[in-house]
Amino acid sequence: MSTIHWTEGSVRRSARWHSENGTPLPRRTVVVDDRTRADDAYHHACAGTALLWRGDFHNARHLLQAMGRRIDRTPPTPGTSPAETYRLHRRDSGHRARVLGRLLVLLDDDYGLALRRAPDVRRACLEAYGPPKGPMAVSLRELLGVTGAHQWRLKGVEVPALGARVHPHYGVFAPVRGEYVDLVAEAPLPPAVRCAPAGATAFDLGTGTGVLAAVLARRGIGRVVATDISPRALVCAEENVRRLALTGRVQVWGPGLYPEGRADLVVCNPPWIPARPTGPVEQGVFDPDGAMLHGFLAGLAARLRPGGEGWLVLSDLAELLGLRTRAHLLDAVRAAHLRVVDRIDTRPRHRRSRDTTDPLHAARRAETTSLWRLTTAA
C-alpha cells in the first residue's frame, strides 16, 4: 500500500495514495489553499510537486481550470504524418494528465470531503472504489471523473435501439457512440438465427455495460452470454440486464473472453486503438497490440456452430492514424481460417468528429465504423 506524507501546521501527516491510472506516489507534497496563485501551482505541478488542497472546493476547481489554460498556451506540435501526429497528441495528453493530476484532495475514512462548499461524494466514491479503508488522497481530476460517472450511473444513457436507458458504472465504457449499437441492431441475422431465433445462442464478447447483449436479446435471440475481463463491467452488465428485465435471456459470464460452448452468433466490439491505456476508462478505447481483436479472431472458428457468424464491430481510426493497416486486419482474418461474408459501414455522428480544434480531427472526420460479418473458411 502506498502512503503519501505531508506537513501541515508543523504536524507530519499521511494517508493512502490512490490513482486509477497508476500515477506513481508523488515524491513531494505541499499544502495549498485559496491564497495560492495559479502560476505558482502550475510551476510546482510541472516540477513534479503534488499540491494538497485545503481551501474552498469551488476554488479548487477554478485553480484546476486555470492550470489547464496555462498548459493550453503551448499549441500542439504538428506531426509529419498521421502516426506522428497521434504520438505527439498522446504525449501532450499524458503531460496534461500528469500536471493536472498533481492537484490533490483528501478523502476522510468514510469518503467524506472536508472542504468548504464541497459536495457529498461518499456514494460516488463507494461505487467507484468499494468500501473505504481509511483516509485517502486522490487527484481532484480523478474525483471529478468519479462524481461525473456517478451522475451517468444515476441518469443513464439513452439508447434508441433499445428504447431504454443503459446505466454505465465508473471505469466502464459508456455507449455514447450510437453508430456501433445501431450496426448490431440493424445488421441481418445469420439465416440459422432468423429461422429460429428463440433457440439460438449468441455471445457478446467484451460486453461493458451489456448494451449489445441487450440489443441481441431484444432482437429475439433466446440465449445471450455476455462476457468481459473487467469485474467492474461484469457488475455493470448484471445491473443493466436486471433493469431491462432480461435476466432470463442474458447470462453475464467472466472474467474472460470466450465462455464455454458454441454459438450461432458471436459479436465483438473490441477497443479500436492498438495502444496502451492509461487508466480504466481508456480500456474501452485502447487495446495493447490489438490483443482482444486477435483473441476474438483466433478463437472464433472453434466457437461457431455450423452456419454461424462472427460480427466484428471496428472503427478504421487506427488505420487512418497509421497504427494498423487494412492488410494486417485481413491477414489476421485469414490466419484464423475465417472469411468475410459482408461489411456494413457507417459514418461517425459523435461530437469529436466535428471538433476542428482536435489535433486528430482529419482522421476522426474520415473515420468509418464497420460491422464485419465473418464465417469459417470453406
Structure report:
The protein has 378 residues and is of the alpha/beta class. It has 2 domains: 150 residues, no CATH class; 221 residues, Rossmann fold, CATH 3.40.50. 36% of the residues lie in helices and 22% in strands. The chain is built from 13 helices and 15 strands. The strands form 3 sheets. A 7-stranded mixed β-sheet has the order 11-10-9-12-13-15-14, sandwiched between helices. Strand 3, helix 1 and strand 4 form a beta-alpha-beta unit. Helix 1 crosses helix 2. The radius of gyration is 23 Å and the shape is globular. The termini are far apart. The model has no long low-confidence stretch (mean pLDDT 94). GO terms for molecular function: nucleic acid binding; protein-glutamine N-methyltransferase activity. It comes from Streptomyces calvus. Pfam families: MTS (PF05175). Keywords: Methyltransferase, Transferase. One of its GO terms (biological process) is methylation.
Indicate the structural class: alpha/beta
The CATH homologous superfamily of the largest domain is termed Vaccinia Virus protein VP39
- Please identify the oligomeric state: single chain
C-alpha-based Rg, rounded: 23 Å
Sheet with the most strands, sense and barrel status: 7 strands, mixed
Q: SSE string, helix = H, strand = E?
A: EEEHEHHEHEHEEHHEHEHEEHEHHEHE
- Overall geometry: globular
Could you please say which CATH topology of the largest domain applies here? Rossmann fold
Unreliable residue stretches: none
User: How much helix, percentage-wise, in residues?
Assistant: 25-40%
Based on DSSP secondary structure assignment, what is the total number of beta strands? 15
Instruction: State the end-to-end distance.
Output: 54 Å
From the coordinates shown, what is the CATH architecture of the largest domain? Answer: 3-Layer(aba) Sandwich
Strand content: 15-25%
* CATH class category of the largest domain: Alpha Beta
Spatial sequence of strands, sheet with the most strands: 11-10-9-12-13-15-14
Total tally of structural domains? 2
Total helical segments: 13
What is the mean predicted local confidence, pLDDT?
94
